[in-house]
């Protein structure tokens, strides 16, 4: 999923907030559609067929998404439309797969094998993260190490998972004959809604008190709906009430693929013998899940049990929330350190200025204020620049600065307009026997200045080219072909390349680092990933098994979908904060950490009063056994009977 954020940023050229918002909107859609998939499975097709049919929709979405990532296929609008169509189909296919796969696996176990079923959910989550580990590591390699039409190969990064999904579907179908396939039990979701609506309306119709008071508000539906359905709905509503605080956990967990990936782009990925891509940091999460699941199941939980502590499912989930809070507190500290090591940004009524001398001799530069007072005096040798940007203060939001340039015996005066909060480079160049200057704004990642007398066409790839002419003009006679060695470019740095022919060896590129790369290693993200992954194992794996074990037999998929729906709401929370929060990044991390801490307290209080259902309480009449009856003469044993 992290590759999707980079795709939005660098292929579709969206800004960071838009990329984050669309990323979480897509994630939300992936967790809203399981309601539709669960309804189809429980009411119409059954879980097995729903998995098969909507897997095909999922594969189709990947095909369209890959086509939308081909640079040669149309322009920006075509890429955007195909990408959104592909993502919508992927979300729809995901809706059929997510709620049904976990429940379908649970269907293979009888109730007497509850311990084995619990272990299955751990293995199931382990398998998911093993796949995630492989894809998170391989996908950035497919994107960055393979070139498609001279660019990062996003088409391959999106296409390979679709192909692997086809293979997985074939393997799944090969075991069709050995699966237990419970048939659909009617339109359960509709029955649940109608039952709740009738109970509420019937309760308000009989407010007079003439009728006896019911033990539970759903008992008001007893005159129209069967007792078993009412019992199932009671179980369902109790669990759904417990789900209300859960979205906040997912709001934090799913930021690994958006905010944390963007944080990694501002850090140094050079780990010595290996350079880590920002989206490859995501490999830590599934890798640590593979380690933590057996560690928690086989070591930590057993040690806690031997200490006589009753570590229930709800307590595990609460501890998982606390660990996620700590993870975001650590992320905030890392963000503050990145800001401290990053170059300062110009504030209100401020600019940053550097001077670059491309003349053949030393130039003395004096920046004059409105009252002809000297704001900056610097002597710069030929083909040198100021060692660092200088901060200049403005009297208004925009202002004219006067420059006095002394070159040989000449004194040249020039004027340039500037605006607050910008970076500027004053480039001094030869103009016959005199000199002139031009002002360039911005700090793009790579910038070229051409000192040659002819236009230079620069090709950075098969489809990436630009022309740089003298004085940024256009020449009809391009310079002959030549190659430039730009050297290693670091993440987060901004470079200025001056193309010059100062020797007899032909044109060369003079590289200057406008803004240095961030020196803080991306390895400092490891603690926050370890904490949030430990929280995920305690919260997500436990919650998945808890949802299945507490669900009535007719509503396994529906409750799995409701569990996934909490993930969707969590992503919406991130989307809203990203669009309307307006906070600096470290403050946003602290906000999420504090919100989850409050939610954890509320969840703990709710969990304290929750009484887990026993297996015999959630079985249907067909699953219950009449107890053995012993007398002086006979011992009757009755078999399962549908009444």
Defining key terms:
five-stranded mixed β-sheet; disordered C terminus; 643 residues; four-stranded antiparallel β-sheet; alpha+beta
Any overview of this molecule?
Its main location: membrane. This protein has 643 residues and is α+β, with helices and mostly antiparallel strands. The protein has helices spanning 2-11, 16-32, 34-45, 47-68, 76-107, 114-144, 154-174, 188-205, 227-243, 247-253, 259-265, 284-306, 313-341, 526-550, 556-580, 585-608, 615-618, and strands at 147-148, 151-152, 350-357, 363-368, 374-380, 384-385, 390-393, 398-407, 410-419, 422-431, 434-441, 446-450, 456-459, 465-468, 494-500, 508-515, 629-630, 635-636. Strands 3, 6, 7, 10 and 11 form a five-stranded mixed sheet that branches. It is built from 17 helices and 18 strands. Strand 13 and strand 14 form a beta hairpin. The chain is elongated. Helix 3 (34-45) packs antiparallel against helix 15 (556-580) and helix 6 (114-144) packs antiparallel against helix 12 (284-306).
């Amino acid at each position: 999923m992290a590759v999707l954020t980079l795709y939005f940023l660098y292929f579709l050229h969206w800004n960071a907030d838009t990329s984050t918002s669309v990323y979480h909107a897509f994630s939300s859609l992936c967790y809203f559609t399981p309601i539709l998939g669960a309804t189809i499975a429980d009411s119409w097709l059954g879980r097995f067929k729903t998995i098969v049919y909507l897997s095909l929709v999922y594969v189709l979405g990947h095909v369209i998404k890959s086509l939308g990532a081909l640079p040669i296929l149309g322009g920006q609008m075509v890429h955007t439309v195909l990408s959104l169509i592909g993502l919508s189909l992927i979300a729809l296919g995901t809706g059929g797969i997510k709620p049904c796969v976990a429940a379908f696996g649970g269907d293979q176990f009888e109730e007497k094998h509850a311990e084995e079923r619990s272990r299955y959910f751990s293995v199931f989550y382990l398998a998911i993260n093993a796949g995630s580990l492989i894809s998170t590591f391989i996908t950035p390699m497919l994107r960055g190490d393979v070139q498609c039409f001279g660019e990062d190969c996003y088409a391959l990064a999106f296409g390979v998972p679709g192909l692997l999904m086809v293979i997985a579907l074939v393997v799944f179908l090969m075991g069709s004959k050995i699966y237990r396939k419970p048939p659909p039990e009617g339109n359960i979701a509709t029955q649940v809604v109608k039952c709740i609506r009738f109970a509420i309306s019937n309760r308000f119709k009989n407010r007079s008190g003439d009728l006896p008071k019911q033990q539970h508000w759903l008992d008001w539906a007893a005159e129209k709906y069967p007792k078993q359905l009412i019992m199932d709905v009671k179980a369902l509503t109790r669990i759904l009430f417990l789900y209300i605080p859960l979205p906040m956990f997912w709001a934090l967990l799913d930021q690994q693929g958006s905010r944390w990936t963007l944080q990694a782009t501002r850090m140094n990925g050079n780990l010595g013998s290996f350079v880590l891509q920002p989206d490859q940091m995501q490999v830590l999460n599934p890798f640590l899940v593979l380690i933590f699941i057996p560690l928690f199941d086989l070591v930590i939980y057993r040690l806690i049990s031997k200490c006589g502590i009753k570590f229930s499912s709800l307590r595990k989930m609460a501890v998982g929330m606390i660990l996620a809070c700590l993870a975001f507190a650590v992320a905030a500290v890392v963000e503050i350190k990145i800001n401290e090591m990053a170059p300062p940004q110009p504030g209100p009524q401020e600019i940053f200025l550097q001077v670059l001398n491309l003349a053949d001799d030393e130039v003395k530069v004096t920046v004059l204020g409105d009252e002809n007072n000297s704001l900056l005096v610097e002597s710069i040798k030929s083909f040198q620049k100021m060692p660092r940007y200088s901060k200049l203060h403005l009297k208004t939001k925009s202002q004219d600065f006067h420059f006095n340039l002394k070159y040989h015996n000449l004194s040249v005066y020039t004027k340039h307009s500037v605006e607050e909060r910008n970076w500027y480079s004053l480039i001094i160049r030869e103009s016959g026997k005199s000199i002139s200057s031009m002002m360039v704004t911005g700090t793009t990642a790579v910038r070229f200045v051409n000192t040659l007398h002819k236009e230079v066409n620069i090709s950075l790839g098969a489809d990436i080219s630009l022309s740089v002419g003298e004085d940024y003009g256009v020449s009809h006679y391009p310079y002959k072909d030549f190659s430039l060695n730009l050297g290693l470019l670091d993440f987060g740095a901004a470079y200025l390349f001056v193309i010059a022919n100062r020797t007899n060896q032909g044109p060369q590129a003079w590289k200057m680092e406008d803004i240095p790369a961030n020196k803080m290693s991306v390895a400092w993200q490891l603690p926050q990933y370890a904490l949030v992954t430990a929280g995920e194992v305690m919260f997500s794996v436990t919650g998945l098994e808890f949802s299945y074990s507490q669900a009535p037999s007719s509503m396994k998929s529906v409750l799995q979908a409701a569990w996934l729906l909490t993930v969707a709401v969590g992503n919406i929370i991130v989307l809203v904060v990203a669009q309307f929060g307006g906070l600096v990044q470290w403050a946003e991390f602290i906000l999420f950490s504090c919100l989850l801490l409050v939610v954890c307290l509320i969840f703990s209080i709710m969990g304290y009063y929750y009484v887990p259902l026993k297996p015999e309480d959630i079985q249907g009449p067909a699953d219950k056994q009449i107890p053995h009856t012993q007398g002086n003469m006979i011992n009757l044993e009755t078999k399962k009977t549908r009444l």
